[in-house]
Amino acid sequence: MGRIAVASIVILWLIPISILVNTIVPAPYMDEIFHVPQAQQYCRGNFRSWDPMITTPPGLYFLSLAYVASLFPGLFCMQAVSSFSDSCSTSILRLTNGVLAVICSVLIYEIIIHLRPSLDDKKATLRAVVLSLYPLHWFFTYLYYTDVASLTAVLAMYLLILKKKYLFSSLIGALSVVIRQTNIIWVLFVACSGVIEFTQSRRKDRAEVDGISSSKEKEDLSANLKDVSIVSNLRKRRVNNGAKSRNKITPQSSVPMTYTSGLLDEIHDIIIISWNHFWELFVSFSPSFMVFVAFVAFIRWNGSIVLGAKDAHTVSPHFAQLLYYGVVSALFMVPVHFSLDQAALLFRQFCKKKLLSVFQWFMALALGFLSVEFFSIAHPYLLADNRHYTFYLWRKVINYNRSTKYLMIPLYVYSWFFIQKIRRSYGCWYIFSRVLHHLSLLR
Question: What is the pTM of this model?
């Protein structure tokens, strides 16, 4: 029922807003001036044509071909179009992302109920709808961009890895890279998530087996003690048996593969279990490794990550983006992050562990300063295109004067501290929303 409810709500939002967008902006807008003509070339069967300004692979265009092919018989019978190429209008191509947005919402719901199986169906539905209508994701649903298709493929890959369908997950991962090559990072992320999930399940199984073994030995020990207590002349033997039994139990109580709270202990357990099950992991995740190898071969052949406009898309360390991300995430949760209660809580925690807190804040501020000073890059398109909100954020806020970008560093650090606090409170749910947010930003 939840899946149908989520899909229905998204469709009810999708239809009227799509009509409104196509009425107000019927012609290709912003980067659509590159994507729409390229997809239309593919609709005409001209697969050798390629716009050198397009940076992403043609995965979206092939998805659009499959989508338009499913619509063409109905459109042709209604005499709405006279040929297949006529079906590839701007509005129909945009609707590709509309259909994918509905699929994406269902995937979000599936991931939520998988990560939180005890969650009430109504709450899971509400959370899925809220994430599906996330502004940075929802905006591109009505335009012909790679964002929605990319996110849908990544979430499908993640869901399949959660369900331990490793081969299918790697195939969808390859599709996600063909849609947008930066998704190779998410292929690695999902594969690592699968490895961690594998080690946790093995550790849990081991802990349950050890618990059963320990309980059985305790029961045997109690039975032996009861038997020997009947005969008084066997007291000495009873003591010796008890000592032997305790010696027998002691090694079991120090099994290394038990749940531990420290991060280093967690990493240690993951490494040990991965090594002990190396070949099993290798067979399961080798398809994902092959996708990564193929991507490296592509970069070597292409000479760059992007396909076109290589001069404007060189690889550069831009760590300041992580700082911007922290503020944007915090702004969507202003009542949680910026309140007197939260400020008071932060101050109490600071006083409780003063030395550690001073060190943490000093390191965070230092890293923030280094990121802003040496790894803050203004993309040429950011400076030239006033149709982006980021164009005005950069000019009117971040780069208002030379000191502004440094004065914002404490705000960046404050945002990240509370992001980590909420992550500890909400666990995988908050991590998942952060992944969705970050995927929406990668464009």
Answer: 0.73
